[in-house]
Amino acid sequence: MEVDLSIIIVNYNVKDFLENALRSIEKAIEGISAEVFVVDNASEDGSVEMVKQKFPWVKVIANKQNLGFAKANNQALKIAKGKYILLINPDTIVQEDTFKVLISFFESHPECGMAGCKILNPDGTLQLACRRSFPTPWVAFTKMVGLSTLFPKSKIFAKYNLTYLDPDVITEVDAVSGSFMMIRREVYEQVGGLDDDFFMYGEDIDWCYRIKKAGWKIYYVPLTQIIHFKGESTRRSNIDEIRVFYDAMRIFVRKHYREFALLGLILKVGIVVRGLIAMLGKFIKSYWDMVVDVFVVLISFMVGEFIRFNAIFALPKYAYPEVLIVPPLVVWFSLYSFGVYTNRKFSIGFSLLGVWFSALILSTMTFFFKQYAFSRMIVIVMTVFNTFFIPGWRLVLRIFGKIPFVNIHIIAKRVLIVGTGSRAVSLIKRLKRKTSENVKIVGIVDYDLRKLGQKIDDVEIIGSINTIEKVIRDKKVNDVIFISDDLPYSEIFSIISRVKDKNVNFKLALVSSDLVLSKASIDSLDDVPVLDIDYNINKFLNKFSKRIFDIFFDNPAFDFCLSFGIF
Question: Lower CB count within 10 Å: N or C terminus of the chain?
Fold first, then answer.
């Protein structure tokens, strides 16, 4: 039997995303002669068992170790029989018409060797990687130094992601995203598979480069679209994605731009610098609250100096930098000990306890280290200042309800459910039982207005698909949860596209499980009230805290204080 389309999915520890991807694919291959491969890279989450149980028609290749994206795809490419071959990520959802639209495009464009469709982020915005130029030295330079971001409409500076082009127009491009790449069989037979030298990242650009070099055209085809929950596999692994990404760029430069010796060197330097900036940005995003606290402590120290000596940096030179390093470390240790950076994030009460405990430690340290005991006034001013400002900035965030840089709401999230029926009842009951966060269900949106005003488990139907934008605006909705078996994926995509400029998180309730797929995570709907266990000693903060604890408490001076009842 002739196969029209071979679909290849490389999976690594994203079972729930994979399940939903396969369900959307199952709908999209109706009427098409297709085969589907799942190549599993030694997942530990039961992905292989899930596929075999729920999707027996899928061909599974179960690897004993993580071979990387390129090698795993090549395993299935070697046995694929389709006239067209699609590489697609497991953390995607396709529309019902996606494959038919792309196959039709190939049939009407014989010069097309590869095509990609429009790819949306879960918030409805365009995922820029779905259409790109090759990273020539100039294109890569403008991307790395930020010129492409500063001038997104410039044909000179914004070539990498082609942001100056209309995202709804079919365009010939250099490359499409590795999360969705459809190719003709004869093209694969001509240029071969992915380059095994790339573990992850870069292999898609390299493949596109070889296809273009062989004389084929590559098209961005926004006649259909998918959603891509980017980065889920790397989030569930111990892979340093930043290092792997820039290593891949180095391989690409060495392979294809060897003749540009000077520019190649500049590009390599740029890759290193960009990598360092990316790692710094990742650190700040993860620990920005600690950075804010350090800033507050340093300011409080300088205020104390100024009040005591009418000048800053007025202490003896030998005292620096210790007097600027030790107080922030002590405050860090204290706040961390009270869970302010872990399971009690943004707690006002425990941040106060942390500040006062740090004041006790600092005061005790001045008793033992006389050469740094310059003034009790400084310690008192620091304590007063920190008492107001360390809990203070947390209080401001609680009032406004939104934490910058990360998608966390302090106040109750306002949730809108799209869909009715038994699944809606089950979803509402589970949301009401959630204990890990505040959730307020503002209402339900149905297909039309015929049931307007009716209630499902005391939650009112307040609008229809056609009025959802107004409902989101009027009700100040934070999260929109779609019930996946109540709406076609094309309708879900249409809604996301219409409200993409709103500050809203879109989520999808899975058909057959108690999970919700969201922008960057999976939320369980059946939370059990247990203590957060977050004290893996291999984590940096935990190792640091333990070391400080050991130094401070495993000390003769501490025993002395205990014996005289100081603590």
Answer: N
- Three-state SS across 465-514? HHHHHHHHHHCCCCEEEEECCCCCHHHHHHHHHHCCCCCCEEEEECCCCC
Triad 498, 499, 500: Cα angle to 5°: 100
Contact predicate 57/173, CB 8 Å: no
Spatial CA neighbour of 443 closest among 466, 421, 422, 464: 464
Hey, is 2 helix, strand or coil?
coil
Provide the residue count of the chain: 567
In angstroms, the Cα distances linking 272 to 140, 144, 276 are 13, 10, 6
Contact between 39 and 73 under an 8 Å Cβ cutoff? The reply is: yes
Phi-psi region of 300 (alpha: psi -120 to 50; beta: other; left: phi over 0): alpha
177, exposed or middle or buried, with CB in 10 Å at 0-12, 13-18, 19+?
Answer: buried
This model's pTM is above 0.85: no
Contact 129, 112 (CB under 8 A): no
From first to last of its 567 residues, what are the pLDDT tens digits of the chain? 688 999 999 998 888 889 989 999 999 999 999 999 999 998 888 899 999 999 999 999 999 988 888 889 999 999 999 999 999 999 899 999 999 999 999 999 999 999 999 998 877 788 888 898 887 777 777 876 778 888 888 888 888 888 899 999 999 999 998 899 999 999 999 998 888 776 666 688 889 988 999 999 999 999 999 988 875 545 544 455 555 555 556 666 666 666 555 555 665 666 667 667 767 776 776 778 888 899 999 999 999 888 888 888 888 888 888 888 888 899 988 988 888 887 677 788 889 999 999 888 888 887 777 777 777 788 888 899 999 999 988 888 777 655 544 445 455 678 888 887 777 888 888 777 764 456 788 889 887 777 888 888 888 888 888 888 888 888 888 888 888 666 778 888 888 777 765 578 788 776 554 444 444 343 433 332 222 223 343 444 445 544 544 544 454 444 434 343 333
Query: What is the chain's alpha carbon radius of gyration, rounded to the nearest angstrom?
Result: 28
Which DSSP string do the residues of 175-236 spell out, in sequence order? B--TTEEEEEHHHHHHH-S--TT-SSSSHHHHHHHHHHHTT-EEEEEEEEEEEE-TTHHHHT
107: which 2 tokens?
């049939």
339: phi > 0 → left, psi -120 to 50 → alpha, else beta; which? Answer: left
CA–CA gap between residue 4 and residue 86 (Å, rounded): 11
Q: How many angstroms separate the CA atoms of 207 and 187, rounded?
A: 11
